[in-house]
Design brief:
α1 runs parallel beside α10 (about 420-440). About 35% of the residues lie in helices and about 25% in strands. It is built from 14 helices and 19 strands. It is of the alpha+beta class. The strands form three sheets. Strands 5, 6, 7, 8, 9, 10, 11, 12, 13, 14, 15, 16 and 17 form a 13-stranded antiparallel β-sheet that branches. Strands 1-2-3-4 form a four-stranded antiparallel β-sheet, with no helix packed on it.
Length: about 575
Amino acid sequence: MERRTLLAALLAFVVLYVYQTYVAPPSPQQATHTASVTQQAPSTSSAASQAAGATAGVNPVDAGAEDEFTLENSVVRAVFTNRGGRLKSWVLKNYIDSKGVAVDLVARGLPDGQALPLSIEVEDAAQSTQLNQALYAGQVDASRERVVFTKADAAGMTARKEFELDPSSFVLSAKVTVSKGDRSLPVGLVWGPGPGDLGATTGGGFFSRDVSRAPEAILYNGSKVERVSFADVTKAQTVRQGAFKFLGVDDHYFIAAALAPGSASVAFTGLSHVVPESGERQRQLLTMVLRAQDSVQPVRFYIGPKAFDVLKAVDPEFVRAINFGFWSWLAVPFLGVLKWIYGFAGNWGWSIITLTILMNIVIFPLRHKTAISMRKMQEVQPQMKAIQDRYAGLKTTDPARQKMNAEIMALYKEKGANPVSGCIPTLLTFPLLFAFYSLLSESIELRSAPFAFWIRDLSVHDPYFVTPILMGGAMLWQQWMTPATGDPAQRKMMMFMPVVFVGMFLTLPSGLAIYYFVNTIWGIGQQYFTNWILGPPVVQTPRPSAERRVKSVGSGRTESVERKS
């Protein structure tokens, strides 16, 4: 049973590893680009009067020259261009890439003809192009949190785009109206291609890989979250319609989503292109076009990190954007405890170690019960093998094998051994491991979080593979000292498991390797403690059975009689 339990753990880990590494859609290589942000005021003092004329839709409005307008708060610096009244840059001040450059969620280096975020679409394609390429009159308010773009032409086409940045969050409100004459035109608001963050790379060498997922479309209607992979979107345009709590596009750590758009339709399309900055690698981006049924109310966009507390502050249901998977019910509490520990430790690596120790203290009784059960199984192993040897010649379907099972169960009952009691406590520890894996794989809190010495990012693999090798050595030590309850061939196979685990952990997050290493070291210490309490094992060797030939009285024949000495 112990062997099957460990094999089940190995199989589960292999499945998780293979899916994350080879099945999940590949993500683009990270590139570093410097956000060129220019804060400029409107180029003409008459912008306000021009905006008023555009709002009325009477006089043509001409901005004259292309200009940039900046909105800024404590966490975001947003740069708009009056060419189409669109977003040119969305820089997250507190998030940097591996080169130390602030993350910009507006993609750069796109092929010609790709729309900037917050472009608009109307029914006529030519009019859409005109609206997105025209120069708008723009005006930023004194607080630098609101900008208004207006455009009117002699043909009676007027457009007004108003954007307002929340004072201290990643939320941008957008209200767009387009009319021709006295008729309002239905408008689709474009986000993308994005997200613009190129993610994080695990380092150089043969084992280098991207830890960021390819982008995906995400929709939540209040009951379930639908995620559409980049591969599925690129097969055919993905269109959804309904009442949504949020919808948007995201990648591993960042998301651009419309919040509570209500009844709306949305269309997603994919884009793959080569980015020279990223070593001529293919980059994958998604574009969405949102058409809200209520065109009067502004649409609120969240464009920022998938940080649990930040999303929860926006909307408690918005935390569903973080894909912890099946283990979210356990990963979310773990994240809360981990962040609480971090408040004291100030280092995510030490926080992981502390949480691992606390987890092991909680499951100490389960592990102790497992060790006791394994000790009892070790003590009865010779007697159980002797029973099995007596029935070795029987076929599996032979009814006499039922007698063998009955003798083994009687032996278990006599000695107080129960193989199941050793398996169940071990199985109960697996959810902790899988939840921790989800936590370390998805939490942006660990993105670019250093530990100590050579480990500068707990969300990517150990660049020198020290922690996986130490973990493998600890596992080998633990296997060696574990009481033998199976045949030698099985034990040799179990001794090979550390090699398999080392191979898997070479590309897994170093934070997970640290967790598993500390967890294994604790298990070794607990095994020594249990051995000290129980003392040396008392192995009861069965006396060999004697077989003598006796002659039946008066029968004239010889029979073989087996008896116990």
